[in-house]
Every structure is written in C-alpha cells, then in structure tokens.
Write a structure and sequence with these properties.
The N and C termini lie far apart (58 Å). Helix 3 packs across helix 6, helix 4 crosses helix 6 and helix 7 runs antiparallel to helix 9. The protein is 40% helix and 9% strand. It is globular. It has a four-stranded mixed beta sheet with strand order 1-2-4-3. A two-stranded antiparallel ribbon has the order 5-6. The protein has 238 residues and is α/β, with parallel strands linked by helices. Strand 5 and strand 6 form a beta hairpin. The structure holds iron/sulfur cluster.
Length: 238
C-alpha cells in the first residue's frame, strides 16, 4: 500500500477537521457545502475508495476535488490529533481526478428517480443526492462492530419542517433512514442502506435570556474560541 493511501485509510473519523479547536481556521469548502465528502475526513475516505475501486468517478468527485484549495488548514488539526497530514491525500485526490479522463476513464452522472426528485423539492436541488461520492462518506465507521452500509440517498434538511416532510416521504416509500449530526457514533448507529439525514446545516443558536434558555441546532458540534469572542463582543456592546 502506498504512503498516501495509508494516510487516507487511517482516518479515524474523529471529525476534528470539522471543528476549529486550534483557532487556525477550518476547511472552507466543508463549511460551505456541508456534506461530509467536502471535509478532509470525507476526502480521505473518497480517495481510498477510488484507489481501491470501490466506487466509480462521479460528477461529485470532480466538485469535491476542485473545491479543495490546498490551504493546508486540515494538516494542523489532523496532525495535532493523529500526526497525519491530510493535505498529501488532498493533492493526490486532485491528481487522480485530473488524470482520470486522459486514461480513458468515464465520469458517472447521477441518475434521477422519483424519490430523489421528491426529496429535492423539499430541501432544494443541492441538498439531496444519490451520488456515490457523497453516499460513500456516510457508509462506514472505523469500528469492527459497525457493518458498512451504503445509503441510496443523503439528505441535508435545514429546518424542522423540512425534516418532517423528508421523513414522511421516506416512510411513504418504506425507505429506512438514519439521522446524524456532525459526527458518527463509531458504532454504526447512523448508517442505513436507505437514506442518511445529515443535520449538519442546522447550526443555529438562539439565546432566550428571559427564560435562561439556549436552543442549539443539531448541526452545532462545538463552541469554539471564535464563538466566545463574538458572544463577548455582543454582551459588551449591550
Ligand atoms: S487543504 Fe483542502 S481539505 Fe484541507 S482544509 Fe484546505 S481546502 Fe480543506
């Protein structure tokens, strides 16, 4: 196994690349596109799956590879926790995708079906997909107890109304689903061969000071220094 593939296969899904715990910044494409595949963790899985020919090159692979600007921020976070440098994998992923057409490789376009169309009507075109490059990064966990399951659909709703409508639609087609937030349980609880509903877009925090309540969206993974700086500023300014 080559060294780059070793790094990719050793991602432990700690998901620390999704949290700015070092105050060094966070992967810009991940925070914009939200699907796990756009974070360093997902790109590591994607690279390994492509090299091991577990999935074909799809249209989302191109978007995922292109959206990494090789900023290297993930190296700080990943090295701190696991002593790995994911940007080496990110470079290799870009190169793999760049060379693919020249080697006569095809690019698989995603096929629509009535269920996908219905899901997209609820959450918007971008936020429901059956592309294998997205589904793959929701399909396994590095635990011997977690049996891999590749979902047919990944959906990212952005409100409770959207969650409710998505679940009604899935139930009406007898499609099993799992719901997850920032990370996975490492025990396989958030995997499903039907659909995975990722709540990572729901990152709102509402303070109800009168009632001493805070409502935290299910996509909030951690409160970073930046958050506390902002909070302090807003308290100081009245
Ligand atoms: S190198 Fe790529 S994957 Fe890593 S943080 Fe920068 S944009 Fe994200």
């Amino acid at each position: 196994m080559n060294d780059i593939l070793k790094i990719a296969r050793n991602c432990r899904h700690y998901a620390m690349c999704k949290i700015d715990f070092l105050d060094t910044g966070i992967c810009a494409s991940g925070t914009e596109k939200h699907y796990v595949s756009f974070y360093p963790q997902g790109r590591m899985d994607l690279y390994a799956a492509l090299i091991e020919k577990k999935i074909p090159v799809t249209e989302k692979c191109i978007e995922i590879a292109d959206s990494c600007d090789l900023c290297g921020k993930c190296d700080y976070q990943c090295y701190f926790v696991t002593e790995m440098k994911p940007s080496l994998v990110m470079k290799a992923l870009k190169e793999h995708i760049r060379l693919h057409p020249g080697k006569g490789g095809e690019i698989l376009m995603s096929e629509h079906d009535a269920i996908l169309d219905g899901l997209r009507e609820i959450v918007g075109d971008y936020w429901a997909t059956n592309d294998r490059a997205i589904a793959l990064t929701y399909s396994h966990d590095p635990s011997p107890l977690a049996e891999p399951k590749m979902p047919e659909y990944v959906i990212m709703p952005n409100s409770t109304a959207e969650i409710s409508a998505v679940i009604k639609l899935l139930n009406s087609h007898n499609i099993k689903y799992a719901v997850r937030g920032n990370g996975s349980s490492v025990m396989g609880f958030v995997m499903s061969k039907g659909a995975v509903i990722d709540l990572g877009r729901m990152k709102t925090i509402h303070f109800d000071e009168k009632n001493f309540l805070v409502k935290v969206g299910p996509g909030v993974a951690a409160l970073t220094k930046k958050f506390f700086r902002k909070l302090r500023l807003s308290v100081d300014s009245g």
